[in-house]
Specification:
Mean pLDDT: 95
Shape: globular
Strand order of the largest sheet: 3-4-7-8-9-10-15-16
Bound molecules: ligand RRO
Structural class: alpha/beta
Number of strands: 16
Strand content: 15-25%
Order of helices and strands: EEEHEEEHEHEHEHEEEEEHEHEHH
Radius of gyration: 18 Å
Number of helices: 9
Low-confidence stretches: 133-137
Largest sheet: 8 strands, parallel, barrel
Distance between the termini: 31 Å
Length: 309
């Protein structure tokens, strides 16, 4: 029987399939339920210092089968209430808070807060594709120096995963800058900057206007960006693990990302209305490994990276 265990930034995960931030994690109860699906770890919705109400609806629209645009607008109760309400240390699998802020100093305050509450790893969201001016205005992960500054400031408090954007030509340069600044892992990709329009109403589909594209159609883009990230880190002599995501909807998709060099994956959009799909992906990965005769994830990780060498 295949061994799916993987070590990520010092954390032992029983399998590499993690719940992505922003899906089925908006209340403590839902997060608790997701811990029972067979996930290796859970990432929380993005947490900011102050509460944020989110954008006006519609906040999510399916634009093609299994492919969505969203502009949630970072709705969350703020750090203090989050720490009171959400189980960070009580669940049987690791819970990794996702942090979002406008400056490295604010990110550091968040990191200190969750570390004090028992978190042993956090993900810093450098890549929400539709920030309003009042919410920071630009994409930190489009600027290697800005991204590295956030990583350096937060990594003083606990190990951090830097979540990168696909909305950039050279994702590798940002990954390398974050890794050199002390990131324990890199996650990619956040959603693609997007817009869709209602011809009858003559207005954007989303309440916010702009949004981020996720789901099935984004998988080939995610795979390419993850491959480029892994290649850039290797070329720089860095062994920082990469967490792949974008359009994963079944066990084969998990395999695809691992073959591109990812240590683990995150799954989001395809779980909407189907939380049990996560466990099915884990089982399917194990079956695929048995069928191929692979005992551990390391036996096939990065095969596609080697294919391009
Ligand atoms: O809350 C959102 O609108 C949102 C976030 Br923080 C993000 O990182 N990515 C995304 O597609 N939506």
């Amino acid at each position: 029987m295949a061994n799916l265990r993987v070590i990520l930034a010092g954390l032992v995960l029983e399998n590499p399939v993690m719940l992505a931030s922003g899906i089925l994690d908006s209340t403590p109860g839902i997060l608790q339920r997701m811990a029972e699906t067979g996930a290796g770890a859970l990432i929380t919705k993005s947490i900011s210092l102050q509460s944020r109400p989110g954008y006006p609806g519609p906040t999510t629209v399916e634009v093609a089968p299994g492919t969505w645009i969203n502009a949630m607008g970072l709705p969350n109760p703020g750090l203090e209430e989050f720490l009171e309400e959400f189980p960070l240390t009580e669940l049987p699998i690791p819970v990794i808070p996702n942090l979002v802020a406008d400056t490295p100093e604010e990110f550091a305050t968040l990191a200190a807060g969750v570390a004090k509450a028992g978190a042993v790893l956090a993900e810093v969201n450098l890549s929400c594709p539709h920030p309003k001016a009042a919410y920071g205005g630009s994409l930190t992960a489009q600027d290697p120096e800005a991204a590295a500054a956030v990583v350096a400031a937060t990594a003083e408090h606990l190990p951090v995963i830097a979540k990168l954007t696909p909305n950039i030509t050279d994702i590798g340069s940002v990954a390398v800058a974050c890794a050199q600044a002390g990131a324990a892992a890199i996650s990619a990709i956040n959603t693609l900057a997007a817009l869709d329009v209602d011809p009858e109403l003559e207005r954007p589909l989303l309440g916010n206007g702009y949004g981020g594209l996720s789901g099935i159609a984004t998988r080939p883009i995610g795979l390419r960006k993850v491959l480029e990230t892994v290649q850039a880190l290797r070329a720089a002599g860095l062994e920082t693990p990469v967490i792949g995501m974008g359009g994963i909807s079944d066990g084969d998709d998990v395999v695809r990302y691992l073959l591109c060099g990812a240590h683990t994956v995150q799954v989001g959009t395809s779980l909407t209305g189907n939380p049990e799909r996560l466990g099915e992906m884990v089982n399917s990965l194990a079956k695929w490994m048995d069928h191929k005769g692979y005992g551990t994830l390391a036996d096939f990780r990065g095969r596609i990276v080697e294919w391009f060498e």
